[in-house]
């Protein structure tokens, strides 16, 4: 079985500069995400960071990624436009799935792929209840109808995203705000998932349900086996048999 090539890209700045963050995620929050994805035999997981050479994603690496997870916050602007374009094209061609985590709602790759600025309102860390809105969805597998996150940064509507193709999770916060917290988008031949928990001073990536949702999302977002759309190459004969397609 070919394993899914999964890369977790992290800005990786807070963990190196803020004591409180270092305490929760000593090797970076991407390393914590890797540790729970690593138990899956169908995944080969590795890490990338903004300050790595080529911002962690040289062409030869990017070209082999099946699913890219992205966490960024304070340095969105530092990510090169050239890299963003390569990521977007790879998603549109259906060669790679993209998962935007927490403050990646305003990251260049996410906003560029979905097409809006991703703005939202935010507030103090507080209790959050995550509600499963679409229990039949693959990403909700193994998740109860709701679960509690003890402390998470308040993210609130209005959230400037295009209407999601599937809204799998919705969040309620202690202060009364709500948020489209887990949203799927089909873009071109590729799949994109946004998932809200994951503030750097909160422990959400240790929550088993959050871990299960991210794991499910990686499998959901993987490229389709049928292959990629071919540009500017209309076949002369529009009807083929199954055998002809397979040859
Ligand atoms: Zn945050």
Would you mind describing this structure in some detail?
The protein has one domain: Class I glutamine amidotransferase (GATase) domain (Rossmann fold, 3-Layer(aba) Sandwich). The longest helix has 14 residues. The chain has eight helices and nine strands. A nine-stranded mixed sheet has the order 2-1-3-4-9-8-7-5-6, sandwiched between helices. With 247 residues, the protein is an alpha/beta fold. Helix content is 25%, strand content 29%. Bound molecules: zinc ion (ZN). Zinc ion binds next to loops.
CATH topology: Rossmann fold
| Mean pLDDT level | 95
- How many H/I helical runs? 8
CATH level 1 class label: Alpha Beta
In whole angstroms, the N-to-C terminal distance is: 22 Å
Query: Could you tell me the radius of gyration in angstroms?
Result: 18 Å
Q: Bin the strand percentage.
A: 25-35%
Q: What is the number of beta strands?
A: 9
Counted up, domains total: 1
Strand/helix succession? EHHHEHEHEHEEEEEHH
CATH architecture: 3-Layer(aba) Sandwich
Ligands (ions, cofactors included)? zinc ion
Q: How does the overall form come out from the CA principal axes?
A: globular
Strand order of the largest sheet: 2-1-3-4-9-8-7-5-6
* Biggest sheet architecture: 9 strands, mixed
């Amino acid at each position: 079985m070919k394993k899914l090539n999964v890369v977790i890209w992290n800005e990786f700045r807070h963990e190196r500069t803020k004591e409180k963050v270092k305490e929760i995620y000593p090797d970076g929050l991407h390393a914590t995400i890797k540790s729970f994805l690593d138990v899956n035999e169908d995944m080969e997981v590795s890490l990338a960071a903004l300050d790595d050479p080529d911002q962690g994603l040289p062409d030869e690496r990017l070209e082999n990624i099946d699913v890219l997870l992205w966490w960024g916050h304070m340095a969105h602007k530092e990510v090169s436009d050239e890299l963003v374009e390569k990521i977007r094209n790879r998603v549109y061609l259906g060669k790679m799935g993209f998962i935007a985590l927490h403050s990646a709602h305003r990251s260049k790759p996410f906003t560029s792929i979905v097409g809006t600025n991703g703005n939202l309102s935010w507030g103090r860390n507080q209790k959050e209840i995550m509600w499963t809105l679409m229990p039949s969805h693959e990403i909700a597998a193994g998740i109860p109808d709701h679960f509690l996150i003890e402390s998470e940064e308040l993210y609130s509507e209005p959230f400037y995203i295009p209407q999601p193709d599937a809204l799998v999770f919705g969040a309620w916060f202690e202060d009364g705000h709500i948020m489209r917290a887990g949203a799927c988008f089909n873009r071109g031949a590729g799949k994109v998932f946004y998932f809200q928990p994951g503030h750097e001073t909160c422990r959400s990536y240790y929550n088993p349900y959050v871990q299960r949702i991210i794991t499910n999302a990686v499998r959901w977002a993987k490229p389709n086996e049928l292959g990629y759309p071919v540009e500017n190459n209309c076949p002369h004969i529009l009807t083929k048999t199954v055998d002809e397609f397979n040859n």
